[in-house]
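Hey, I was hoping to borrow your eyes for a little while. There's a protein on my desk that I can't quite get my head around. The fold is given in discrete form, as structure tokens running alongside the sequence. I'd be grateful if you could look everything over and explain what you see. Here's the protein in full, and shout if anything looks odd to you:
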Amino acid sequence: MMNGSTGRRGGGRGRVRAVSAAIGLLAGALTATTVGASPAAALTPPVAITADDLSTWQTNGIVWSMAAGDGVVYAGGTFSRLRPPTAAPGTNEQPAVNFAAFDAATGAPTDCSLSFTISSGTATVRALALSPDGETLYAGGQFGAVNGVGVSNIAAIDTETCTVSNTFKIGVSATVRGLAVTDDTVYLAGDFTQVGGQTRSHFAAVTTGASLLPFTADADEVARAVEVTPDGQNVLLGGDFFRINGTNTHALAVVDATTGQLTKSYPGFIHNNSTVQDITTDAGGFYTANEGTGGGVFDGRIALNLGNFEQRWRDTCLGATQAVLVHSGVLYSGSHAHDCSSMGAFPDQPRKHLLAQSVDDPKLLPWFPDTNDGIGEPVGPRVMAQTNSGGRHYLWVGGEFTTVNTKAQQGLTRFADGPDTGAPWVPNVSLSTLTPGRIDVNWQTSFDTDDGWLTYRIYKDGSNTPIHTTTGYSVFWDRPQLTWTDTDVAPGETHSYRITASDGTNTSAKSPAQSATVASTTEAYPGRVRSDGASLYWRWDEGTSTFAHDSSDNLNNGFMRNGPAYRQTPAAVSGPSTAIGFNGTDEYAYSNRLHTQPARFTIETWIRTTTTRGGKIVGFGNRTQQNSSRHDKHIYMRNDGRLVFGVQSGGARTVATSGAYNDGQWHHVVATQGPLGQGMSLYVDGQLRASNILVSGNDSQPGYWRVGGDNLSGWPNRPSSNFFEGQIDETAIYPSALSGSTISAHYALRNG
């Protein structure tokens, strides 16, 4: 567990006598500025740790516990060997039986070698904590001996000699999962029901001389976390329990440090199917890591005040949190968060395992190193620790993972407060010439794993001097479109542009050069789409990037997924434009922006296909990187080539064409929903083909516009594929139901 006054795991106050080292080895606002304006700074405050992982030794199993101080990191868990950085499993290994000590600055093991074993079953070290003076390391778990010296699930280690204490011995009946240490007391949390031969249900306290104390905080279920408040007056308890000393308080409680009697209970505060896995403190608050099982549970983090033990904030991300740690006003956490949409962050998607938040605000900060789930349960990170060494501050992470930042790395990794070495992604650029006499330079903001504000520099016609500099904020799920207009051009001229992104220390490569010829007249079709009020307009003119730029005035850009076929010709309408091709298997695009429910709307697009497997063409869903669980306001094609427009309004309501449109020709497809009496309408090639004037409602939840594919489960005449195989062009969304005459006028402009 984490130290009360510093936010460090397992003690860390005072000096720790370092064990000598034997091996020394080695992310949507736009603020416009002028050329030469102040650039973004590396590490967007208050983040003070880079996301660049450092070279670190590895384990061959799971790291469950860590403690750190004065440049040494102790790790315990369920493993048997260590290996150097980059070494493959089974190569260059050395023994380390469930315990190892490391030089915080080099990531290499020290000469402190201890073996935690048990006569039957699997030994494991589940808790580590340093005494305030750093002279003693306490270890808890499931083990019967340390280096052959008999113990009973808890042991004390002299950090100077790396030897187990023969005087600190007390019997604990089952696994110890949490430890907290003061000058004279060791608090225990775990599975046990007896300590020193006396009844203690899941929590207990002993002296540093191993004598059982009268402290009694009996829990009815497993205890997982224990932490002493900075003033030493109270103890914070976390776990699976529903009662402490017979009083209702689920998963969290505050008790008197001497007696164990309740200071603060939390009935109904945490979901019954959620537990507290970890607790840490700083000078003003304490923070919980929470894990839930089942639907509607609580998986996030809670910040509470130490003055009154009341909640300061909580986040509602889904994906169980296992570890929390505070450094410089930032709460770092290890979890497998997969859905933070309820707090305005990323929607349900593949897991993210390391996050950061201000201790004063649950909003996610731009710090996104990542691991995988790994082995075991698997959930990725399990524990965190921090310490200073050689003028640097180090954050260590342990767990089940086998990769870090996509590279092979098992069980352990570490980060520091500098230097920041990771450059932002190269910007994706698209040019637009819809307005005569100018070129609009559009780009998708980049991503940097530890910087939100990035500086962009635009280079024109091969020059090495930027013609424009600006800043923009982005994170991995929100990379808004930025636009700059070059008016220093003339009709008929061709110009090229490249853009870099910088975090103030590291700068990306220049984007590939994009060229455009300045128009002298307005193109008829896109001019009409824009004048009729499109709020999203993707023309699909990009090449080999993830960026679908928005040609409306709303900067409503999209992401392309899995590499659809760019710049397909001929396009649906005349002019210097192209279409995009989707494979009908996994290629699609989605809007960067989360949209509120449109009560009235129009979907307009062009399609060309010969598919006999159908698929979704355009729709509205709640997910971006996987198929949606809520999905409506869509146009899809059946296997027989007929088109369907559907919304959710007291069930799936659809209208469908009588004819097929999988004939290999371009077709103009428009779906509208208006008020009662206008209802649902589906137009193809300028003509009304199907309608239902009685359906005026649709699903009320927010979502993302998706093109090329999404879930079609539960919809009538569901096609063989969720994804559309064919070409799509000129996709537009409007915040109103266009009239039939307007739609016919659009179709008539296809030839310019």
In short: The first strand starts at residue 30 and ends at 32. DSSP finds two helices and 61 strands in the chain. Confidence is low (pLDDT under 50) at residues 1-39. The radius of gyration is 30 Å.
